[in-house]
Amino acid sequence: MENHAIKMAFIAVLALVNSCKSLEVTPTSELGYDEGISTSAGLEGVINTAFGRFISGNGAATYFDEILYAEAQSVKSVTRSPIAPTSGNTYELNLFNLQANSGVLGNLSRSRYASVTAANVVLDAIERNIPQDADIAIQKNRLMGEGYFCRGTAFFESVRFWGHQYGFNSTAPNSGIPIPLTVPVTGSIGVGRSTVEETYAQIITDLTKATQLLPVAYDASVHGAFPAYRFRSTRAAAFGILARVYFQQGTDASYQKSLEAINAILGPTPGTIAATVNTGTRVYALQPFHSGTTLAAGGPFNSTGFTSAPANSEEIIRLVNNTTTTGGYIAASANLTLESGGNPTNRGGVRWVLKRPTPDVAVTVPVTTSPLFDDVVNDRRFTVLTANNNFGTAAAPRNERYSLKWGSQTGTLIGFQTCPMLRAGELVITRAEINAVLNNLTAAAADYNLVRTRAGAVTKKLGDAGFTTKAEVLAEIVKERQRELLFEGDDYWAWKRMGAYNAKNAGVYPASEVAPFVRGGVSYNWNNNKTLLKFALDDINLNPLMGPGTQNPD
Prior knowledge:
The protein has helices spanning about 1-5, 10-20, 40-50, 65-75, 90-95, 105-125, 135-160, 195-215, 220-225, 235-250, 250-265, 325-340, 380-385, 425-435, 440-455, 470-485, 490-505, 535-540, and strands spanning about 80, 290, 295, 315-320, 350-355, 385-390, 400-405, 420-425, 515-520, 520-525. It is mainly alpha-helical. The chain has a domain at about 325-415. The two termini are about 45 Å apart. The model is unreliable at about 1-20, about 25-35, about 320-350 and about 410-415 (pLDDT under 50).
């Protein structure tokens, strides 16, 4: 019965993808026999399902949405527009008040656990030697690597939303998320909540295996040339997400591990980027995202076309829309683009904008300064990647600057066709921060200036005023990270990570960066239960190993 069920798990994946219930899976024992996973080609279809939930899909949360959700909960570098609606999911997220009956939560968990289930199908099928075709010997390691990559990444994104920051009650029962590692055969994912520590251990195990199994590059003559490979993971992508995981753990030991993973992609010399044995001939050099005063063609943001990243792109993994129809990417990206940029005809209702200067300017006056950017004249991240609100009705506030990272391609289409899931710019500024924390200030300054040079901003020498001591260098690098990753959802996770680090290493990060958030007159610390998402009602009610007692408390 069990082997029969596993042979038919491909159907279970499809059932999960289309199910309206978050973590409920059609029991494999009730499904008819299917040959879908008896060949390597069949497993390709299953792994496509795992990757497909990272990108576009009607009625399902995507990686784009996760950027928005994190941005909505943080708003350290950005703020809600005063004309933004005072209702809706992102408004409730901003107030830490999204309820368990929200469809957002069900969509988010369904998407992530659809990826997990598909990955488990592939891994179990290969472990049990179900595919017997001649091609499986060539594709086996790569398929397994993709399975581990998808599963580890899905667990990581999930535990950040539903579990506390690593280091805070990390061994407490029900502090983590469900981490199913086998194919479901009973109608549910079959496991309860793990601890945060157990979850991170599994994430690291999965992504480490992915670094060992994934190819350095995809070869169309070996791996096939169909469009899905435009966004598939490589060994560098696995190292990059692993670096992000270790960094989020926020300990000296994990920072060192993150540094090692970054160097596996960028090379060991701060201030430079070179090819490594894990990237082959590819150098993930920081690319210009500007040409004069406009976005550069082929840059990592606002990219046109349903294609892979350019050969010399800094994008380590690009999420490419899985449909070539205009309607597909509009439907898939409407939530995020309408929140942080959106259709030009709707930009009068932009919700998340760059924080304004003090004293504020009149509503009719375009913003030309910023409390975040220290070089608004030269820094293209301000002059090119943000813009004043000149769209919408005449009443739209002109003193707001919104993001052009997720902007439109034409006057009427949203155009969120691609999304850089991981790029070298993030890894460089992460390496700078780690070295600053570890008191390697020369190395930290080298990477800090590499990022600023690409942006066109004025650089700083170690020893310059305000850039001499460990505290000064680290404080400036933290701000530089906010500038580099503006509107990419990083602020929220950084707030939690730095808060946990300071709880054990008092005063390392600036107090202003770990200060409580105030929402609706209520103050929330980084480890407040309200900063966790609730599990959707179906997640609780349909899994016999969860139940009301495992819900995140207020």
